[in-house]
Each structure stands twice: as structure tokens, then as C-alpha cells.
Amino acid sequence: MHEIFRTIDTRQKIIELNEPLGKGGFFCLKKQGVTVGRPEHPLKLMVEIDRPKSDSMILFVCAKLNEIYAKGRNFDWKKPDRCPRCGSTRLWGHGFVPAYFDQFSDQLYLRRFRCPDCNCIIRMKVKGYFARFHTTIQTIRSCLEHRLSCGRWLAVLSTSRQRHWLAALKRKTMAMFGVTMDLMTGFETLIAMGLIPVSRAI
């Protein structure tokens, strides 16, 4: 096959370009005897592009934290019947992920599963918690109710965390329902909508 070779003089010494006709070319930058900027093999790039990216979902289950803590990785996690994203019945074990909860000083290991059909990662979590929160929903609710009714923070948790929850709730309630909505009513309404009322995201 006919090929085109070009040599260009620059301050970086020499750039050599080798580009077959009809193909994507590549170049090597040579500076003081060191080759830099060499691209990956085209076939490797094709594999990376075609590979489906994994997504993650949290599946809430009924379980006791004390039992999970006591048994560790030996806790009997029930595998979901099907993938919550694509509905496939083929689910594989995908190890464990460490998680922290307020009432435990050490980490607990939560089970993960992977769907080989859609590449979704399913993370198990105990009901009664918001996703990515260490405190129970009831504790968060009690802290907010006490602050709004009595004007004081509960001593069971740090004030900074409770301030964060209240600020996030005010911001999200105003954004979704306006300034007239009662904050605790907004808290319950947002939960009913499937949202986390005390998260930063709106």
C-alpha cells in the first residue's frame, strides 16, 4: 500500500508522521531522544469505546445491622430475583463494600451484585436510611423537629451535621414548593416523591 512520509523540522527536534492512505495516522514526537505522545493501539481504543460503562443502584432490604456487624462477610444476603434496571435474572456476586453507621465504630460490609447483561452494580443497604447517609431517617427527622419546635439542637449528634440537614431541607423545600411550605411537611413530601430532603442536590 502506498504510504506518505513527512518530516517537519521544529524546535522540538523532529516530528515524523507516518499515515497510510485511508487509515487514521499517528505521530511520534521526539525530543532529546525521548518519544512522547504515542497513542494507544487502534484496536485497544475500539475495545474501550465499545465496552458498556457500569452503573450503580442501591437496593434497600430488611436486615438487622447488629446481625450484619456480628457475622461480617458471612451474613446471608438474599440475592435479588432480577436486575432492577434491565430485569435480567442473571446476577453475579460482586464482593462487598465497606459502610459506616452512627451506632458502630467499625465498618460494616454490605453485599454487592452485578448484572452481566447491563453491567449494573447493585449495592444492598438496610432500610430506614437515605442513600449515602450514616444516620437513620428517624434520627434526622427528630433532630429537625426538635430544632424547629424548640430552637435548640439535639445533643445526640454534632451541631454541624444538623445544621447541614436543616440548610439542605430549606433550600430544597423552597426550590420545589416555594417559601410558604412548612419545612417538616416538605420533608415528608420529598420522601414520598422518592427524593432525599436533606441532601445537597436539588
Descriptive report:
This protein has 202 residues and is of the alpha+beta class. The protein has 3 domains: 3-50, no CATH class; 55-126, no CATH class; 137-192, no CATH class. Helices cover 29% and strands 27% of the residues. It has 5 helices and 8 strands, in the order ββββαβαβββααα. Strands 1-2-3-4 form a 4-stranded antiparallel β-sheet, with no helix packed on it. The radius of gyration is 27 Å and the shape is globular. Residues 1-31 and 41-52 have low confidence and may be disordered.
Helical coverage, percent range? 25-40%
Shape: globular
Kindly report the average pLDDT value. 79
- What is the count of structural domains? 3
What sequence of helices (H) and strands (E) makes up the elements?
EEEEHEHEEEHHH
Number of alpha- plus pi-helical segments = 5
Distance between the termini: 58 Å
Low-confidence stretches: 1-31, 41-52
Summarize this structure briefly.
The chain is of the alpha+beta class and 202 residues long.
Write a concise keyword list for the protein shown above.
27% strand; 5 helices; 4-stranded antiparallel β-sheet; 8 strands; disordered N terminus; alpha+beta; single chain; 3 domains; 202 residues; 4-stranded mixed β-sheet
